[in-house]
Structures are given as structure tokens and as C-alpha cells.
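Fold this: SDR family oxidoreductase
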Amino acid sequence: MTANKDPKTPPPQEQDQQPGIESNMHPEPEYIRKDYKGSQKLDGKVAIITGGDSGIGRSISVHYAQEGANVAIIYLNEDKDAHETKQLVESAGQKCLLIAGDIADPAFCNQAVKQVMDQFNQIDIVINNAAEQHPQSDFMNISQNQLERTFKTNVFGMFYMTQAALPHMKKGSTIINTSSITAYQGNKDLIDYSSTKGAITTFTRSLSESLIGKGIRVNAVAPGPIWTPLIPSTFNAKKVDTFGSNTPMKRMGQPKELGPAYVYLASEDSSYVSGEVIHINGGTIVNG
């Protein structure tokens, strides 16, 4: 896989449908540092990662494998990306289960969890990462179908997957949700998406309060502009050409810059952390 060396912005490009395909991006996202060395922080654990086939999800999957975890990747239909990620996990010496389907369907979430239990007989980490977004410059153009679809994937899917997995989790287990800088700053062209990310942040805090007595921690990561397949499949080529340039660091982030945060939140390194959000956004201060 080719990789760029922290470009400030990508060249103009776009893809015509969501979810986007990582292998069609140029440059392809960087999912792990070449010098990253795992230290078995997740040894023997099993993680469910929604949207784990590409982008941030691929970075989480590979980092977790480097740290000794087996991984179950939940994805919609991006088979090529999913199989490439599976190979990367297995090359790190860990097992990877691929499950394709729509997390907006609670029956699918229940079946996916059953497959994970049949394969691994345990669930220690749930990563609610899958999401979609559909920019609209005019609020009035957000259709009922778009609104419902965005909430079903980003919020309902998170609820369904967590509810399906939770009965199999125990003291020491962790849940990590992917929020967004848009939950804190807002975004005039992503009103419905930003609203779902606000819901995810509040879900994280509320579920943490609910589960902390059981010894299950719940946290979140709020990325800024990160180079993932969602970007060229969402925005036009002109928008992509300036992606990330409005951050204090004047560049977009790479998935490899998020993976270690998910390792931290899943490991004993964060044993006194719950209900919190880690902001990885190129220096934008949001204080939330």
C-alpha cells in the first residue's frame, strides 16, 4: 500500500457512492506508523469494530492486532477493503472475523454478535465507529430519507450493536464510540451528521454513568478532519482539495494518528477514565 508523508491536503478527487473505497483513494490513508511496536496491551481480548474495514476502523483493527487482540470487523459491503484489513490483522498473528451487513438493522446486530461469540466465545471491546454523512448547503434540502438514514446508521446502529454485545461483556470490558469535532463546533453543511455526533457524545457520557458500577468503561474519540474513504465519497473534488487546511496544524490527519488513542482507551492504561472524549483534531480547542 502506498502512503503519503503527511501531505497538507490531498489532490482533488471524489467517489460516487458511500461507503467509499480505500483502495481508490490517492494517496491511500496511512493506518499505522512503521515504527509502531505493540506491547500486548490487549493480549487475549476480542474486539468488535464497526466500520473496521477502512479508514479509522482499519487503523483500530491493525493497532489492536499489534497489541494482541482478535478482531471482528463489521462492515457494509466493502469486501475488498475488508479482506485487505483481515490480511493485515492476520499478518500480525491475530484472528479476524469479517461480517458484512447493515448495523441499522437490530436483527443483523444480534446475528453478528452471535457469530462473534460462536467464533471467539468472548467480547471484551466494542468500537462503535461506522458512520455516514451527506452534506447539504441548504438545511431545507435535508430530506426525511437522508435524516432517517443518517440517524439509523450513526445512532441507532450504535444502540443496537451495544445492546447486542453488552450481555456478553464483563467487568474490565470497554466500549469506545467515534464522535466528531462537529459535535462541538457544529458544521453548517452537515447539520444532521453533526447532530448524530452530538448524540454519540451524550450517549457516551450517559452509558458510562449506567455501566460504571459494573466495571465497564465507556469513552469516545472525537476526530477532526481525517483522511478516510468517507471524505472523497462525501465531498466534491474542490472541497477535498482543501481538506484539513483550516486546522491550526494546516493539514488533515491520518488514521494512524487515531489508532493509539483507541488502544489507550481499551487498555488498562486508561483504567481511571470513563465518560470522556479524546479530541484528535490538529490543534483545534473545543473544551468539551
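Residues 1-6 have pLDDT under 50 and may be disordered. Residues 217 and 274 are 5 Å apart (CA to CA).
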